[in-house]
Amino acid sequence: MRLADLTTMGVGGRPDVLRTCTATNELIERVRRLDDAREAVLILGGGSNILMGDGPFHGTVLQIATRGIEIEVGDDAVRLTVAAGEPWDALVELSVVNGWSGIEALSGIPGLVGATPIQNVGAYGQEISQVIESVRVLDRANGSVEVLDNAECQFEYRSSIFKRKPNRWLIVAVTLELRIDANCIVRYAELAATLGIEIGGLAAPGEVRSAVLALRAAKGMVLDANDEDSRSVGSFFTNPIVTVEIAAGIPPGCPRYPATTGVKLSAAWLIDQAGVRKGWRLTESSPVRVSNKHSLAIVAARGATATEVIELASHIQKLVMAKYGILLDPEPTLVNCTLGAA
């Protein structure tokens, strides 16, 4: 089987070996044995945030399909310990149905629970780091199973210790703490406008989930076999965080938000203003293009190659760099391929 068949972008070569792990202990032991033998290993979840190169992967791909949710209900909060292989959006739906809040704005994001801490998944004003209590991991440096608390995960915008050291830890379970019967504080302008409330206003988790699903679908960011625009990794580039001085030189029309280390700018705005419009492609016949619904997504039609995706993404990087002096970083994990200076 080609890795293209296991990823939402739909590109990628064949692995030497492919194994599916349905039990956590099986997953841990397989990784330990492969690491001890110093064999190349690729841990694959839902394939929604990865760009695979066209060449073969010389090693073993372990596809995570573990299941299990432990629920501890308290007076005001509920603690969920979730196996890494549980589908993420199904967990969001479960929480909303039960009246638990804290992840409803993360509705519609494809992939598995175990991937969410890696890039500190976030959308519409919420981040997974806001509700993570701890993460259970296999430390591949010494083979031990450990629990890292929130602080030890070193979360940052679209990043964590797991992303900065990608081969050190294998996430096997995530423990979240959600609020019971609490409304969501809506901090994201687009979501607030959709709900018809002011920024900072309150909305029920179910209302937030419905609104977010509608917003994501309109941008082609909900997986749909009938929507070619969903053949992507979602946002291909992260919103760049720059210094206050650099932000001051960007036209005031660019949306911007305060960040811990500077100012976060809208990558979509920068791309659009650099001349890249929705549906844009390098040539008329290219099977790879910018989404018709969102300028941050790159879409690969059936039969496209990772090389063609890289060519388009690199061209977008160069256009933004030439106009604004800002290098856009890719959001997905790149395997067997590279992108510019990122």
Fold and architecture overview:
With 342 residues, the protein is α+β, with helices and mostly antiparallel strands. It has 3 domains: 3-64, Uridine Diphospho-n-acetylenolpyruvylglucosamine Reductase, domain 2, CATH 3.30.43.10; 69-218, Uridine Diphospho-n-acetylenolpyruvylglucosamine Reductase, domain 3 (2-Layer Sandwich); 228-335, UDP-N-acetylenolpyruvoylglucosamine reductase, C-terminal domain (Uridine Diphospho-n-acetylenolpyruvylglucosamine Reductase, domain 1), CATH 3.90.78. Helices cover 23% and strands 26% of the residues. It is built from 8 helices and 20 strands. The protein has helices at 24-36, 88-97, 161-164, 189-195, 205-218, 244-248, 267-273, 306-324, and strands at residues 15-21, 41-44, 50-52, 57-64, 69-73, 77-83, 100-101, 122-123, 126-127, 132-139, 144-149, 169-180, 184-185, 202-203, 241-242, 256-259, 262-265, 288-290, 298-300, 333-335. Strands 5, 6, 7, 10, 11 and 12 form a 6-stranded antiparallel beta sheet that branches. A 3-stranded parallel beta sheet has the order 1-4-2, covered by helices on one side. It has a 3-stranded antiparallel beta sheet with strand order 15-17-16. Strand 16 (256-259) and strand 17 form a beta hairpin. The longest helix is centred in the C-terminal third of the chain and has 19 residues, at 306-324. It is globular. The two termini are 29 Å apart. The relative contact order is 0.13. The mean pLDDT is 95.
